[in-house]
Specification:
CATH class of the largest domain: Alpha Beta
CATH superfamily of the largest domain: Alanine racemase
Number of helices: 13
CATH topology of the largest domain: TIM Barrel
Protein name: Diaminopimelate decarboxylase
Radius of gyration: 24 Å
Cofactor: pyridoxal 5'-phosphate
Keywords: Amino-acid biosynthesis, Decarboxylase, Lyase, Lysine biosynthesis, Pyridoxal phosphate
Shape: globular
Distance between the termini: 56 Å
EC number: 4.1.1.20
GO molecular function: diaminopimelate decarboxylase activity; pyridoxal phosphate binding
CATH architecture of the largest domain: Alpha-Beta Barrel
Length: 461
């Protein structure tokens, strides 16, 4: 077994992970480095109560981050618009973490919703978000999804192409409604993030080529009064996990150029949707603060007379969640493996994006305990089911529990039942209380959702 030497690794150590992650702390425990707590609750105790794997969200962390990001934008864009409206609106990106409880917390903090499906619209409304504060983005919106959005009277639909615009007009006309629409611009800007979550390049499937926008915008807005559409503005979304300010600046400058061109033609631009994508430092790397993002938005788009919209998700929810898992086996050989009972069916990001997540034992090792490099892997029958390679860890035994950090974004929402593994429970810690958000799915419930043709039933042949 290979002993780890801290100077040879760029990975943050346990102390650094504790220091840099809100809500985490080590409670004193004799003979150890402390018992890991999240939101004031012992994670080891939660694992005993709710089982593992288990998703844990800290409502206090989520609430604090909602306040911090909204505060940064309100400070940067403090002057109301001439009509008295706030200069900026924050919309929670539902796709990052869609539990009703988390949506309710965001709604209490004044957030609207950024949705990408009819299902997310239903979630947002059920959680108490106002329809007029909902923005509908994403490619491939179905007719039924668009009809539901129009019927609900949402704030705006970010249109991806001409065909979608025609369908919205037809649906709204048949319903006797007027749909508020914005054109999603593809600015052909690389977000300098993972290829699979970059959405603002010309070759990406998202948005309308920026050079085609003015003519389309003009044709729709000039037809207002004779159609079922109201053209309210422009939208852009460059990608996810953005750490560098330059893509934001470049994309927003191109958007501002379009707005000025539309103004020069006598056209109205009421709303500008700036998208989201603000990244978090999973591995302790340098990351943008909300204040820096807000400053760029204000500097590039703040003087154009439009209400601005931002759609954070990962930055709000990522550090607010952990995934608890238990050690099933330890395997020594060409590599040392710690096999846990959470898999890529639970947390897909490491397998899909080669993403790095901090991992902490729920009982931290005593000072001076030798650490050894091991691979932390799941039980799924895929070689990509790996959470960490060569990660310095203390000795483990069967039944020990670990916490995978920064799992609050794109974690539970991307879970599946691959290998017929039921969905893990979700719980919320908030105001000193613990409550289940989703119960542990049983194999029986999973199978009950299926039917078998009568001729295939046992004894029917």
């Amino acid at each position: 077994m290979k002993t780890h030497h801290p100077s040879a690794s760029l990975q943050p150590d346990f102390a650094t992970l504790l220091k840099t992650h809100p809500g985490l702390e080590a409670a004193p425990a004799p003979g150890t480095g402390g018992e890991l707590c999240f939101g004031g609750q012992s994670l080891k105790a939660l694992a005993r109560t709710y089982g593992t794997p288990c998703w844990v969200m800290d409502g206090g962390v989520l609430r604090t981050r909602c306040q911090a990001l909204a505060g940064a934008f309100k400070a940067a864009l403090s002057t109301p618009l001439p009509d008295g409206r706030s200069a900026v609106c924050c919309h929670y990106a539902v796709k990052a973490q869609d539990s009703l409880a988390c949506l309710a917390i965001a709604a209490q903090e004044g957030y609207g919703a950024d949705i990408v499906s009819g299902g997310e619209l239903a979630r947002a409304l059920k959680a108490g978000m106002k329809a007029e504060a909902v923005v509908f983005s994403g490619v491939g919106k179905s007719d039924s999804e668009l009809a539901d959005a129009i019927k609900a009277g949402i704030g705006q639909i970010n249109v991806e192409n001409e065909g979608e615009l025609e369908r919205i007009a037809s649906l709204a006309s048949a319903m006797g409604r007027v749909a508020r629409v914005a054109l999603r611009v593809n600015p052909d800007v690389a977000a300098q993030t993972h290829d699979k979550i970059s959405t603002g390049r010309a070759e990406d499937k998202f948005g309308i080529a920026w050079e085609k926008v003015p003519a389309l915008y003009k044709s729709v807005q000039q037809a207002e009064g004779h159609s079922a559409l109201r053209m309210v503005g422009l939208a852009v979304h460059l990608g996810s996990q953005i750490m560098d300010p330059q893509p934001y600046r470049q994309g927003y400058q191109r958007l501002a150029q379009l707005v000025r061109q539309l103004h020069a033609e006598g056209l109205r631009v009421d709303e500008i949707d700036c998208g989201g994508g603000l990244g978090i430092p999973y591995q302790g790397e340098e990351a943008m603060a909300p204040q820096a993002w807000a400053h760029i938005v204000a500097e590039t788009l703040g003087g154009l007379g439009a209400r601005l919209h931002v759609e954070p998700g990962r930055w709000l929810t990522g550090p607010a969640g952990v995934l608890l898992a238990s050690v099933v086996e330890i395997k020594h050989g060409a590599r040392d493996f710690v096999i846990i009972n959470a898999g890529m069916n639970d947390l897909l990001r490491p397998a899909l994006y080669d993403a790095w997540h901090g991992i902490l034992p729920t009982t931290l090792p005593a000072p001076g305990t030798p650490l050894h490099e091991a691979d932390i892997v799941g039980p799924i029958c895929e070689s990509s089911d790996i959470f960490a390679r060569n990660r310095p860890m203390p000795p483990f035994k069967r039944g020990d529990t670990v916490a995978i950090l920064d799992a609050g974004a794109y974690g539970a929402v991307m879970s599946s039942t691959y290998n017929t593994r039921p969905l893990a429970p979700q719980i919320l810690i908030d105001h000193g209380q613990v409550a289940p958000l989703r119960k542990q799915q049983s194999v029986e419930a999973l199978l009950a959702a299926e039917t078998m043709p009568g001729w295939l039933l046992p004894g029917q042949r």
